[in-house]
């Protein structure tokens, strides 16, 4: 069964999306917007456990990767090419789960703020300009500060890297993977997507300024 995009867009009219590169402030802004404007908070990887439990390897092979890999060391030791293919495949597979889940969460009429990886091309089909914002940071920041965040997922991956036979080589390899999916080409594609975007200055506390800009763009103020 297929549902026309105009119907999906109507069902998602109360959903607001943040996408962009790593270390650009998506998680922080999503949390602050939810708190300040009483929005439903769909943070990074929301609902992922259930989505992976439902996923079928024949239909969603990328979502099922972590269920089928031999170890977490395999996860961090993939080549940048393999990692990039997996990330892009995940984006499309997750979108099929995200859309119905967001329709469910928005059904009560409350506004929903979403930290998402839904591709911009699809967001143009199911949302509107004033419901999407792109947050960006330079590639050097995305890579070098990736593990500075204290969220459990990043610290778990760092512990896996440290457990590898050659931790230094494993860290260099994983940084190369992160660099690939936050490359200048990816940055440029986000910047030229046609959506509203903000560039983070990692050396300044710009949270209030970014929050105000996003709230204004989303029509929350």
Radius of gyration: 18 Å
**Structural shape:** globular
* Series of secondary-structure elements, N-terminal to C-terminal: HEHEHHHHEHEHHHHEH
Give the termini separation. 38 Å
Structural class: alpha/beta
Q: Which bin fits the share of residues in helices? A: 40-55%
Uncertain residue segments = none
Mean pLDDT: 94
Oligomer type: single chain
Structure annotation, total helices: 12
Q: Strand order, biggest sheet? A: 2-3-1-4-5
Biggest β-sheet description: 5 strands, parallel
Number of strands: 5
Structure, explained:
With 221 residues, this protein is α/β, with parallel strands linked by helices. The protein is 55% helix and 10% strand. The chain contains twelve helices and five strands. The chain has helices spanning 5-11, 26-37, 48-54, 65-68, 72-76, 80-106, 120-126, 139-144, 152-163, 167-181, 184-191, 207-217; strands at 15-20, 40-42, 112-115, 132-136, 196-199. A five-stranded parallel beta sheet has the order 2-3-1-4-5, with helices on both faces. Helix 2 packs across helix 12 (207-217), helix 6 crosses helix 10 and helix 9 packs across helix 10. The longest helix is centred in the middle third of the chain and has 27 residues, at 80-106. The N and C termini lie far apart (38 Å). The relative contact order is 0.21.
